[in-house]
Amino acid sequence: MIDFRNMLIKVKNFTYIKYLNYIYLFFMFLFQRKIPSSQIKVGVEIHNSGLLGTRDWSHEQALFEVRKSHELLNNGRYFEGINRLITFHQSHYQLFADSNGEFYPPILSREWTNAFGHIPNIGSLIKLRERGYLEKIPSRAILSSSAKDNPILETFGQEISFIPDLNSSSSWSQLPSFIHLFMGQNIIWTKASGFIPFEWMVDKLYKESSPTDLSTLKFNLPTKYVNESEALLRELGFFSFSEEEWFITLHVRNSGDEKYKIRNAELETFQELIDEVGRKGGKVVRICNESTPTLPTRDFVLDCAKFPDRLRKMHLYFIAKCRLFVGTMSGPYSYPKLFGTPSIVVNATNIGRACLPSSTFQEYLPMRFSKNGKELSLSALLQSPAGWADCSRRDLATLNLQPIPNSSSEIKMAFLSCFENSGRGQKGELQSSQIRVNEIRSKYPWTSSGDICESFLTSNQSWLS
User: Fold this and answer.
1) Number of structural domains in the chain
2) Which residues have a Cβ under 8 Å from the Cβ of 148 and sit 6 or more positions away?
3) Nearest of 465, 454, 299 to residue 381 by alpha carbon
4) C-alpha span between 201 and 270 (Å, rounded)
């Protein structure tokens, strides 16, 4: 097979490079062979630091800069990490912009598809382009093996072409030596503003959307997928599909690696919520993986842990069709905004950067933190790493911070305060406590602007001091 490395080294004009890269990807797909480590790896690193010739950044420097930036982000030094990433990308941009000074990465790295919760960001990217925040350009996304069965990809496929990931064994996806050909999730290029954080753009998209705009931000599930899901539910006999019937979807993260255990919650703390739904005549669908413990049997509860093989592919249906989604900060909580589903995010962490605006109908029930026995206010939290990153319990112990998970009564009260809004389908006027939250946020260069549950703010006035 033709080796394009030498051709790429000689060609510096971006227009030619991107098309040569497409050709290279085609041949990699055609021959389905493992590429030697000295050559390009699709979806992982470029190990040959000499690729594309002389540059200001060596391969090792690029790796160091990107990893150092992510280290700063993960340690809660958010603005320092973001500024470092932007500086690095801008240096590459000066080297690899085309003759018009424009930068159009044609490929979305595997970072966009290597986790269930990352995939909704592709939907946000599509809507940002539709609404004119980003330029409309053809894009390809590297499809990780874990994403290939996700039904939402059929909807995204109208705007995004997916290419196979030939080197799925590697977790690295930022591609610093080839950054001008790949687009990661942290930093994105805009013609008007240059490089800015992608989450800032998503926040802007929803923050500036009027109620009449909201329908244009929604996606629809594939018809075939909906029909198959409803046929299976009729077979199980759980739903009657009457007009009066309603249900909430519940997801409780209680497993995973040590780094993100801060997002976990105990199933028992959701029991009061489940009881309240039953008293109101609703049903509960609990989505989860097969390794989680089951809920007690109730006639109004469908626990996917009891039918892991049959219901695994229906999680998206349950998120899109429920009256209200209640979940912890794990992959599924990223999906309700794609379908306009109201939701409550329980034990919400890194609230400085992870709360989408109220037009998503998503409300946040924050995890509180204490230091030396005294609870941190919102202002103190935003001056702490715990306000900007998923700190591990070891990190928190080093900072002398103790997490305070949401209680059963807090979760139930959040449900009750959100329940009526989910029925009306529209948000009311901001309450004085939410206005105070926004005033505290305004003291920082940027914070995400989502709503905190009114029940939480009412019960935790000191949090706003």
Assistant:
1) 2
2) none
3) 465
4) 33
Contact call for residues 43 and 58 (beta carbons, < 8 A): no
**Domain around 285:** 222-464
- Cα-Cα-Cα-Cα torsion 388, 361, 111, 285, nearest 10 degrees, comes to 110
pTM: predicted TM-score of the whole model, two decimal places: 0.83
Answer yes or no: do 290 and 330 share one domain.
yes
- Quick one: 161 and 251 in the same domain? no
- Tokens 């389908």 — which residue? 425
250 with 393, same domain: the answer is: yes
If asked whether residues 29 and 126 sit together in one domain, one would say yes
Per-residue H/E/C for 82-114: HHHHHHHHHHHHHHHCCCCCCCCCCEECHHHCC
Using a pLDDT cut of 70, give the percent of the chain over it.
Answer: 77
228-258 pLDDT, tens digit each:
999 999 999 999 999 899 999 999 987 766 6
CATH code assigned at 362: 3.40.50.2000
Residue 236 sits in the same domain as residue 168: no
199 and 259: one domain?
no
Q: Cα-flanking dihedrals φ and ψ of residue 97, to 5°?
A: -65, 155
Domain annotation covers residue 214 = no
pLDDT tens per residue, range 44-85: 222 222 333 334 455 677 778 888 888 888 788 899 999 998
β-bridge mates for residue 362, sequence order: 343
Phi, then psi, of 195 in degrees rounded to 5: -85, 125
